[in-house]
Write a structure and sequence with these properties.
The complex is a heterodimer.
Chain A: H1 3-29, H2 35-48, H3 51-63, H4 65-73, H5 75-80, E1 91-96, E2 101-106, H6 115-118, H7 128-133, H8 138-144, E3 154-159, E4 164-169, H9 181-187, H10 190-194
Parallel strand pairs in A: 1-4, 2-3
Helix pairs in contact in A: 3-4, 3-9
Chain B: H1 31-43, H2 50-58, H3 68-82, H4 88-93, H5 112-118, E1 123-124, E2 137-140, E3 159-169, H6 172-176, E4 184-192, H7 193-197, E5 205-212, E6 216-218
Antiparallel strand pairs in B: 1-3, 2-3, 2-6, 3-4, 4-5
The chains are: A mainly alpha, B alpha+beta.
Chain lengths: ~200, ~220
């Protein structure tokens, strides 16, 4: 990165800081926002709602066939039963990966993402390269994540174009017999629930 | 055509790598969480709906040059100015200069958890039965429309199969234009890679998306 570029970036960040601060000040003066509510919103998505929620849902599905069936039949209700529901997860559909079909979720039009189970989307999910390439070159995108799947596995890309939100149920890793739900949840990565990654292999 | 979305990126040429990110990396500048929170809090006032805010973002002329949360802030300023809730001179001065226009609701701290838990469900009961069933062949609308829509450009005029009937949902196209919810049946429709990309299709790939009934016609 050149020195000039660095300076430019620095001044731009300062400008955005001031702009957002001015917005907050004006909107609070007019009584449209409660600054304490803003702090609480930030804290919620920084510390309470994130991909560990989804990991617990996946681990549960791996150990409990009845829950897995419910999850695939009525994702919204099954996920709500685990305590995760609400904003940007009002209508949940869970897609199960199999040796025959691997799902990968994108929102080509904006950044729709299942917040109650995965939290806020990562930067790449909102970026032009991912949104442009996922639907046309999903194997190339997977390669960017270090993932190569057999040619015999169909890659099904799901574009979140309405208010339905998608969670991928990845395949349970081999050699995890006897693992507890908690141990299994530790193997479930955020990317494996979007479909750009696979669960971790257990340490052997 | 008077309406141009800069956000319809699916299938556009792009040679850049996708850069993975660790799970805990949510924000990249101090102002970004504030931008998120102020956008959510203003959304909660009921001054616009989510489809109006998507329309405000995707029509920003500078969309491609802005980072994600810069897009949110620019669109928020546009929505505020259109409704005279906060004007550019006030944001430049950093203080209120004009009379307050009342809003429907204000999100107070004690109500945040309940508001997030409730969300904004879009499923509605409608009298009309669903026109299509799982397994039906359908063709998507080929014509462009001069307003916000959720049918991506790459899926215009393409034949696919109904994979799931997703219930009736608030219609984004009318909702974004202030023409009401006008709920319609929503379907997940699957397309083969070759239908979408012809000879450029990667082998063994397919795409599914959610489409409202009026985006579709029968292709039986």
């Amino acid at each position: 990165m050149s020195h000039e570029h660095h300076d430019h970036e620095h001044s731009e960040l300062g400008e955005m800081d001031l702009r957002v601060r001015a917005l907050e000040t004006v909107l609070a003066q007019k009584g449209y926002i409660d600054p304490a509510a803003l702090d609480l919103l930030i804290d919620t998505y920084q510390t309470k709602i994130g991909p560990r929620n989804g990991a617990r849902v996946v681990a549960r599905a791996w150990v409990d066939p009845a829950f897995r069936d419910w999850l695939l039949r009525d994702g919204t209700a099954a996920i709500a039963s685990q305590g995760y529901s609400g904003r940007q997860g009002e209508h949940m559909v869970v897609l199960e990966n199999t040796p025959q079909r691997h799902h990968m979720v994108v929102c080509t039009l904006c950044s729709c993402y299942p917040w109650p189970v995965l939290g806020l989307p990562p930067t790449w999910y909102k970026s032009a390269p991912y949104r442009s390439r996922a639907v046309k070159d999903p194997r190339g995108v997977l390669a960017d994540f270090g993932v190569t799947l057999p040619e015999s596995t169909e890659i099904r890309v799901v574009d979140s174009t309405a208010e339905v939100r998608y969670l991928v149920l990845p395949m349970r890793p081999a050699h995890t017999e006897g693992f507890s739900e908690e141990q299994l949840a530790e193997l479930v990565t955020r990317d494996s629930m979007i479909g750009t990654g696979l669960p971790l292999e257990p340490a052997r | 055509m008077s309406y141009l979305s800069h956000a319809d990126l699916g299938g556009r040429p792009n040679a850049e790598r996708v850069v993975p990110e660790a799970e805990g990396e949510l924000f990249h500048a101090d102002w970004e969480p504030r931008a998120l929170a102020v956008t959510l809090a203003m959304g909660a006032t009921g001054s616009w709906n989510i489809d109006m805010s998507r329309a405000a973002r995707e029509t920003l002329g500078e969309y491609e040059r802005l980072s994600y949360y810069q897009i949110w802030i620019a669109a928020l300023q546009k929505l505020l100015a259109e409704r005279q809730l906060a004007m550019p001179d006030e944001l430049a001065a950093g203080r209120a200069l004009h009379p307050t226009v009342p809003v429907a609701r204000v999100l107070k701290a004690p109500d945040v958890a309940a508001a997030l838990a409730k969300g904004s469900p879009t499923e509605r009961s409608i009298g009309a039965p669903a026109r299509f069933r799982v397994g039906d062949q359908v063709r998507t609308r080929g014509a462009r429309v001069a307003h916000h829509t959720r049918l991506p450009g790459y899926a215009h005029g393409k034949q696919g199969v109904i994979e799931s009937v997703q219930g009736a949902h608030v219609f984004a196209d009318t909702h974004a234009q202030g023409l009401g919810e006008q709920p319609q049946w929503l379907y997940r429709v699957a397309f083969s890679g070759t239908e979408l990309w012809c000879a450029e299709a990667a082998p063994g790939t397919s795409v599914a998306l959610d489409a409202w009934e009026s985006y579709l016609e029968s292709a039986e």
